[in-house]
Amino acid sequence: MCHRQLVISWFSLILLASPLVAIWELEKDVYVVELDWYPGAPGETVVLTCDTPEEDGITWTSDKSSEVLGSSKTLTIQVKEFEDAGRYTCHKGDELLSHSLLLLHKREDGIWSTDILKNQKEPKNKTFLKCEAKNYSGHFTCWWLTTVSTNLNFSVKSSRGSSDPQGMTCGAPTLSEEKVIGDLKEYKYSVECQEDNACPAAEETQPIEVVVDAVHKLKYENYTSSFFIRDIIKPDPPKNLQLTHLKNSRQVEVSWEYPDTWSTPHSYFSLTFGVQVQGKTMRDKVRKSLRGQDLSHGHLQEACQRSRASPGPLLQLLLE
């Protein structure tokens, strides 16, 4: 769960009627009510307090009905289902005094709902968020999928460590891709984040945590991913890849350079390059691994024989 905050002061719009923190502030004038979701569930009692020094002449309405719901400074409602959520407004005559929006966060059998985002079907666990980094600079990208197209809003928070969180700055999530899968459209959203005081050469001791708040209509959900930068590294492909056939030989000379986005110095942040070679008449592909410091260019056949490193970025070559 993301951090819960209850605003308690004389002008608060919402006060708890029970000692349990079952309601918290998502943003200004927007509150999340956490509900156990089962037939006959009692729901949560919520007390709304109008932000005004006035005591008399106050009326309450909601966006679900034009009927007057109450005529005092406070309004007590029982929130059991989505029909009870929505925007509540207090007035004095024709003057709007204050309002608040109630969202619902469902919990069924002790498990919070995950209806808004699409599970990306990792082998072991449900995975709703995926993140990648091109280098060790502290900059990373996260993305998620949904089939929901309207009345949808996302916000993202990130930090490193829980006892003494280090600052992270995340931009606004954007729709980055749409595609049709069967009868449905799938939407990919992404966000860019940067660690404020990143030290690329430092050993990571605390993971980064990313929390996505998702709101669809009056439903609230959140999704969390925790990782170290070292575990989400995915370098860009090598640049300036060149292939030269050697005269009177079945050998080729291959050269390439580190991608511009990779961390420097390369002597410290070394890469392992995977080379995959496929002849025109070969049935099987041959994959070899090359350390970045082993060669900047040279005979592919000789280089592959002396390399023992594990594969990284892949160079795909088709030899005739």
From TrEMBL:
* A Pfam entry, by short name: Ig_5
Q: Which keywords annotate this record? A: Cytokine, Disulfide bond, Glycoprotein, Immunoglobulin domain, Secreted, Signal
Q: Does the record bear Acyltransferase in its keywords?
A: no
Q: Which GO terms describe its cellular component?
A: endoplasmic reticulum lumen; endosome lumen; interleukin-12 complex; interleukin-23 complex; membrane
GO biological process assignments: positive regulation of defense response to virus by host; positive regulation of leukocyte mediated cytotoxicity; positive regulation of lymphocyte mediated immunity; positive regulation of T cell proliferation; positive regulation of T-helper 1 type immune response; positive regulation of type II interferon production; regulation of inflammatory response; T cell activation
The molecular function terms in GO held by this entry are:
cytokine activity; cytokine receptor activity; interleukin-12 alpha subunit binding
**InterPro entries cross-referenced by the UniProt entry:** FN3_sf, Hematopoietin_rcpt_L_F3_CS, Ig-like_dom, Ig-like_dom_sf, Ig-like_fold, Ig_sub2, IL-12, IL-12_beta
The entry's localization annotation reads: Secreted
| Domain Ig-like span(s) in chain numbering | 19-90
**Leader sequence residues:** 1-22
Give a short account of what the protein does.
Associates with IL23A to form the IL-23 interleukin, a heterodimeric cytokine which functions in innate and adaptive immunity. IL-23 may constitute with IL-17 an acute response to infection in peripheral tissues. IL-23 binds to a heterodimeric receptor complex composed of IL12RB1 and IL23R, activates the Jak-Stat signaling cascade, stimulates memory rather than naive T-cells and promotes production of pro-inflammatory cytokines. IL-23 induces autoimmune inflammation and thus may be responsible for autoimmune inflammatory diseases and may be important for tumorigenesis.
Q: How does the record describe its quaternary structure?
A: Heterodimer with IL12A; disulfide-linked. The heterodimer is known as interleukin IL-12. Heterodimer with IL23A; disulfide-linked. The heterodimer is known as interleukin IL-23. Also secreted as a monomer. Interacts with NBR1; this interaction promotes IL-12 secretion.
Q: Which family does it belong to?
A: Belongs to the IL-12B family.
**Could you tell me what this protein is called?**
Interleukin-12 subunit beta
> What gene does this protein come from?
IL12B
